[in-house]
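C-alpha cells for Dolichyl-phosphate-mannose-protein mannosyltransferase. Go.
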Amino acid sequence: MLTVGSARSVMPSVPLRAGHGPFGVVLALAAVLRVVTMLGYRPAQLYWGDSFSYLHLAAHPEPSTGFRPPGYPLLLALLRPFHSIELVVAVQHAMGLAVGVLIYALLRRAALPAWAATLAAVPGLFDASFLRLEHAVLSDMLLIFLVVAALAVITWRPVVSPRAAVAAGLLLGWAGLTRTVAVPLLGLFVLYLVARRSGWRPVVALALAGVLPLAAYAAWYHAHHGRFALSGSDGVALWARTMTFADCAVIRPPAAEARLCPNGTVVDAASEYVWAPGSAINLLPGGREANNDLARSFALRAIAAQPLDYLADVARDTALTFAWTPVPHPARVTPAFGFARGAWGLPAYPLVEQVRRDYDPDLRGLRSVEPYASFLIAYQYPAYLRGPYIAAILLLGGAGALLGRRPAALPWLTAVALLVVPVAVLDFDHRYVLPVIPVACLAAGLGMRPNPGKRRWQVVRWPAGRSE
C-alpha cells in the first residue's frame, strides 16, 4: 500500500554522461590558461623564504622548527627523481584542474543542473590568483587539493563507510602536515560524523587515520628536538597576533614573560612582528625558536586577559577579505594582480646552490615570456574574485546549511575555519584566503541543491498473512 513515511535525505546521483559538455569546454579552457601560464613565466615562481626551504627539506628530510611542516616537502620528495621545478608546478596546475572536477562532480551528484555545478567550479579554475598560486613552489595548492578531496570522499555517499572515513582521515592528516591551520579540520569532520549519527566505526576510523600521521610526525619531531610538536613556531605566531592589542598593564605577566611585552616597535601587520628586528621576540637570547614556549604562554595569557580585544582584531583583519579593492597587508606585499613583465634572478646564497645540486640542476630565476605574459597581465584584472563576491558565496553556503540542506554544512564550516583560523593564530594574508574559495563554492552549490524533503511516498508491503 502507499503510505507517507520518513525518508533519509540522500545525495541523488546523475547519469555520468548527462549534459557534461559545457563543463568539458570550461575545463579545456582552464587547462589552456594553465599552459599559457607555464609558457609565460618560466620556470616557476620561487620565494626565497619558503620555496628554497621546502626544496631543501625535500632533499634532506628533517623536522623543521620553523613554519614549514613536512606535508609539502613530501610531495616535492616524490617528484625529486625527475629533477624538474617545472614538473612540480605542472603537477600543481593539474591539482587545480582536479579541484574543479571534484566540485563539479559532487554538485552534479547532488542533482544540481550542469550550469550551476559548472558555475561553482569557475572561480577556482579561472581566477588569475589561482594560476599564480599553482605556479609557485608553495604549499597552498596541495592544501586546497587535499581538503577538497577529503570533502569529496566524506560527502560522496549519504552513508559514510569506514573505508571512506579512513581515506578522508589520511587526506586530512596530510593536510595538517602541509599547513598546521588544517589540523582543526580533523576535529570538525569527526564532529560532523557524530552529529549525523554515522556510527562509531566511521568516527573511529576517521579519527585514527587522521591522528596517526600527525602523531608519527610529532614523535619524529620529539626525536630531533626533544618535545612532541608539529611546529616550533606556533607560540611565536600567536604571540605576534597579540602584539596588535596586548596591554601588559592589564595582562600582568610574570617577569620571564614580561620581556615579551610591546616594546615600542610598531609595524603595520601582526605577522610583521615575527620578522621585525626590533620586536621583543627577536631581542631575546636564542631568538624565536628558543623562546617559542615562552611566547605561547604570554600569548595565551594575553588572550585570556583581553578576549574582546583579541576577537576584535581577528574580526577586523578577517574583514579585509571582503574589500572590493585588495588591501596590501602588510604594506610591502602585492595583494593581487602579480603577473608582470621582467626577469627575477635568484639570490647568491649557499642554499640556492645546494638546492640546485640536490633538486634541479637547471634551477634559475623567473622570467616573463611574450606574448603569453602580456595576455596574463591583461587577463588578471577582470579575472579576480572581489571580496564582496566571496562574502556572497559564503552567505549562500551558510544559508543552505541553516535551511537544513545538510551536505552544505561541512563544506561551509570548513570554509569558515580556513578563513578565520589563520587570522586567529597569526594574521590575514590574501594568499591564505585562496583555499577558502573552492570550498565555499562547493558549500554554496550544495546549499542550492534541490531539497528532497523529509517525507515522501513509499511502498510498504505488509507481512505475509496479514490483511487490512
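The first strand starts at residue 2 and ends at 6.
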